[in-house]
Amino acid sequence: MSKITYNGQTFDFEEIRRQMDPDLAEQFKDTTKTDQDFFDSYLLAHSTKYGEHFVVD
Known about the structure:
alpha+beta, two-stranded antiparallel ribbon, 2 strands, about 45% helix
């Protein structure tokens, strides 16, 4: 399983992926090379769409 870094902590990418807006995340499915790139792109898009930071539960 891939790991990503967020706010100085390491998380399992699949666990974080389940918390994402599925329609928003779909935009980055085939456009990024790594899971970290995917996540970083998602963070920006989430902030733009919702006007707030993505929160990891």
